[in-house]
Amino acid sequence: MPSISRWLILSLLGLLTLSACLALPPEQDAEAAIEAPAPEPRPVAQALLGSGELATTSCLAKPLLSALGKSRVLVGGKMSDAIASQAPFDVRYMYLAGGLFDSAEACGSCLSCSAQAHSCSNASGGCAWWGCWQWDQQAPGQYLRDFLQAAAARRQIPMITYYELLHASGAVDGTAEVLRVVDISLMRRYFNDWRFVLKQIGSSTALLHLEPDFWAYAQFLALDPRLLPAAVASANPTDCGHLPNTVAGMGRCLISMARKYAPNAKVGLHASAWATKIDAHLNTNPLFDVTIEARKVADFLSLCGAAEGDFVVVEASDRDAQWYEVTTGTRRWWDPSNFNYPSFRQAFTWSKALSERLGKPHLWWQLPVGNMSLTGTWEQWRDNRLDYFFDHPDQVAAAHGFGMVFGAGMEGQTNPSSDGGNFVRRSKAYFSSGGQLACPTGLTEAR
């Protein structure tokens, strides 16, 4: 056996040592990751528009905004009528959630309707189905029709967050709701309800946001949604008889139905930063590549039909950062200086990678409303995201964000009626300044 030079051995050992030093750390929970300062960043918007694999000269938001008659980053929220009238908001959103009717088809009358075995009549106190959240003498769906009319009267785009599966399935929040979509009876009522929603919208312009959290929990169970069973063609042969009975087919069915029954609506799935079981928004390890995680989420959603939609929805947090700190002892703050992790720059890097992988712009949804002047109590929690987003809309645009809408994700969180007027003031100032062009210098219209 020929002898081997000791210098060659040392060289090989050196290469092995170097590769070990450069290797990315193993996947770990973001809460447990080691905090370390980031290198001094370039301006975030400049970095997002810069060179490298994430760079693009296409403005993914332009086609969608043009179809909506807009050219600037949209601003809006989940708010009362009183707040909605105080500024020229672009978007107003609401949830449709709570549960489904008990019958196979959508009810024709709230007087004779029931949901979860409870009468929907006013005399009985109402029921969980959104279609009867109204005077029971009116035809079901008036609750949604009123919302659409109010938005149109203020020239605001109505946004519907359709969040029905969790409550309709009766499952606990998590992967259990994904396992319930094999139930043909449940999914028949689910698709019939979605069709009823779309028929209320009709030819109106609207943004449709499909099932927050669900797709992430599905990704927990399998990396390929085509491997997850769901009653699709078997539950809705009318609209989706050509689609597979899988979670992938389910997403494509929901989008296909929107095209059929609400042709002027724009539709998108929800992308969760924690779908890969590592929360990319809370990562504290500067060596961790959030772009890889974003592409994993994008690839999963693409199989569910996201690339056939118009946009994708992302979120920062469902609750104010101070609420988490006080009630759970966890830190959910993003560093506004972008020197330490978690940071705003990291969040925008993740969202940009997601959009570029899908070829679709994203909408920041349910952004916390808290601000740093609040008292730190019920509906008065502090957070820094609203002010950061209004201070840096160029960063939103540079990452292919076409809008930012604010609202509380849970009772007791800061909301536009309890924040001391900060949301309205910042919104007014944004609109008075002319707003942020969705296609900043360096980006051209996507084709």
TrEMBL record:
Q: Which domain of life is it from?
A: Bacteria
- Protein name per its UniProtKB record: Uncharacterized protein
Please report the organism this UniProt entry assigns to the protein. Archangium gephyra
